[in-house]
């Protein structure tokens, strides 16, 4: 670990053979990732939060404007960067002119593929031959955390997490400028990734502790990440908010302490509290039993043992596991959604580094076994999970029903109907329609009406969030009959209402409960 890493030289024939396999891996997994993410979008299985929210901001950034987010259900219209401080949409905004509402999903898939390339480069730099590095690449592309993230919309932390392999790769090669760029990309992807970056840099300092100058650079990176987190969450985000509210994400940990430092201190000084938070259901409802244990089991079976044997990677895992398991929100505990994506590159780096330490004859056996077990875990969890509210049709690309509408919608007809809705008119939309209707300054998440001139709703009650199914249908009937809306368009699946007079209450929100 103390010398500059160089790839093991190989023959031209071996290199060509490995290149063909590698090209096949990239092409094959690009198709699989698209089959999950892009199919979901076409079939209206993406949502206002977060794809609609981000695409709405992307449109303004593409026009070189700042953006006021109107889609939040728990906030008045406010600066987009208050919800999550991410500069990724601004950086990729020119792509909006080419890809429209597909932009962030394509960026997310591209980031995963680039992250895989970083994993491959790291594996080669560790001394693994191209064929073995391809096995590490296949392992990374097969990890369950990637499919969980792709199955649920777009999220900025997916893009940010894919900077990690490049950060570590360039850091290991003492290429400080590209390492700094990867570090910066990770920081600006999402405010909470700065906490992860602290542990990443401390882990690299630990790994290279024998080399004072190298370890010192890593410690400096940790300090910069800590300063970035404090400045962004304590000063910038509240200043950008229309109501100047404090950082909102800490509410998930207030059962541990009134502030984030208090929660950390209270947890570290009370071992029983830490144990309960890491492994046990703290809700008191048996329905959520074993969700945390599922995460631990899947993590260990998917290569987590490598992180224990290369413990600096365990340190990189620690803040992500703490963010998930110490929360009072059971939705974060398990293996659903985007909340585990940061685990994937860490595991891949740990597996590559551990393999490089093995005898040459054991490297292939270890990597094939690890890949096979990780792939088996992924396939099993595509079909069934203990984690709550998992919808197989959004994530399991092996199922025929993944390629059909979840609610029996006629997707081509619905897309055609949505194209007839005028742009640049204030509109309130049901969550699954919102990502397709971002071509306006004011887009609200139904049942928030405010000054919306149009209301676009699916007539099914199968996706009513944040309302109950009954409440959603009641709201539709109420708007039909109360006099200030009329039907502009209606078919078997879509209802578009239009105001008949100016809004009497420009701050109107129909009743709902989060």
What does this protein structure show overall?
With 514 residues, this protein is mainly alpha-helical. The chain has two domains: 12-45 and 84-395, no CATH class; 411-499, no CATH class. 57% of the residues lie in helices and 5% in strands. It contains 22 helices and seven strands. It has helices spanning 12-42, 48-62, 80-83, 88-92, 96-99, 103-125, 130-142, 144-150, 156-161, 164-172, 176-189, 193-207, 212-240, 260-268, 271-279, 291-309, 311-325, 343-357, 360-383, 392-395, 411-419, 469-481; strands at 68-69, 78-79, 427-429, 443-445, 454-458, 485-490, 494-499. Strands 4-3-5-7-6 form a five-stranded mixed beta sheet, covered by helices on one side. The chain has a two-stranded antiparallel sheet with strand order 1-2. Strand 1 (68-69) and strand 2 (78-79) form a beta hairpin. Helix 7 (130-142) runs parallel beside helix 19, helix 16 (291-309) runs antiparallel to helix 17 (311-325) and helix 16 (291-309) packs antiparallel against helix 19 (360-383). The longest helix has 31 residues, at 12-42. It is globular. The chain starts with 11 loop residues before the first helix and ends in a 15-residue tail after the last strand. 46% of the residues are buried.
Describe the structure concisely for a colleague.
The protein is mainly alpha-helical.
């Amino acid at each position: 670990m103390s010398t500059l890493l160089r790839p093991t030289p190989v023959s031209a024939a071996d290199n060509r053979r490995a290149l063909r396999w590698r090209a096949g891996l990239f092409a094959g997994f690009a198709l699989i990732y698209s089959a999950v993410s892009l199919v979901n979008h076409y079939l209206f299985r993406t949502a206002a939060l977060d794809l609609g929210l981000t695409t709405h901001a992307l449109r303004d950034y593409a026009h070189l404007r700042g953006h006021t987010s109107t889609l939040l259900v728990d906030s008045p219209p406010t600066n987009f960067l208050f919800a999550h401080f991410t500069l990724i949409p601004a950086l990729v905004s020119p792509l909006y002119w080419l890809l429209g509402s597909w932009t962030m999903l394509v960026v997310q898939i591209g980031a995963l593929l680039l992250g895989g390339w970083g994993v491959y480069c790291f594996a080669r730099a560790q001394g693994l031959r191209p064929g073995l590095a391809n096995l590490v690449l296949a392992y990374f592309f097969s990890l369950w955390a990637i499919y969980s993230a792709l199955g649920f919309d777009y999220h900025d932390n997916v893009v940010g997490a894919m900077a990690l392999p490049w950060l570590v790769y360039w850091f290991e090669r003492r290429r400080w400028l590209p390492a700094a760029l990867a570090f910066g990309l990770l920081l600006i992807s999402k405010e909470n990734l700065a906490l992860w970056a602290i542990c990443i840099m401390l882990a690299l300092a630990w790994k290279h502790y024998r080399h004072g100058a190298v370890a010192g650079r890593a410690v400096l990176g940790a300090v910069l990440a800590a300063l970035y987190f404090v400045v962004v969450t304590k000063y910038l985000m509240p200043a950008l908010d229309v109501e100047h509210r404090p950082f909102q994400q800490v509410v998930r940990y207030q059962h541990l302490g009134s502030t984030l430092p208090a929660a950390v201190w209270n947890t570290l000084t009370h071992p029983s509290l830490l144990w309960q938070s890491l492994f046990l259901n703290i809700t008191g409802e048996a329905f959520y039993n074993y969700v945390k244990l599922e995460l631990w089991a899947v993590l260990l079976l998917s290569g987590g043992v490598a992180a224990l044997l290369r413990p600096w990677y365990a340190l990189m895992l620690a803040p992500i596991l703490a963010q998930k398991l110490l929360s009072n929100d059971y939705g974060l505990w398990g293996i659903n959604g985007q909340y585990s994506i940061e685990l994937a590159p860490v595991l891949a780096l740990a597996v590559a580094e551990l393999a490089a330490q093995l005898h040459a004859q054991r490297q292939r056996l270890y990597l094939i076994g690890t890949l096979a077990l990780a792939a088996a875990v992924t396939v099993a969890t595509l079909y069934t999970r203990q984690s709550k509210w998992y919808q197989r049709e959004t994530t399991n690309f092996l199922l025929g029903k993944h390629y059909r509408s979840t609610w029996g919608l006629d997707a081509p007809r619905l897309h055609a109907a949505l194209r007839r809705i005028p742009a640049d008119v204030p509109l309130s939309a049901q969550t699954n329609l919102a990502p397709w209707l971002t071509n306006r300054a004011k887009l609200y998440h139904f049942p928030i009406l405010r000054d919306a001139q149009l209301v676009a709703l699916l007539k099914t009650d199968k996706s009513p969030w944040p309302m109950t199914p009954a409440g959603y249908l009641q709201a539709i009937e109420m708007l039909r009959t109360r006099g200030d809306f009329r039907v502009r368009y209606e078919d078997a699946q879509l209802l578009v209402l239009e105001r008949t007079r100016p809004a009497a209450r420009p701050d109107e929100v129909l009743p709902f409960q989060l």
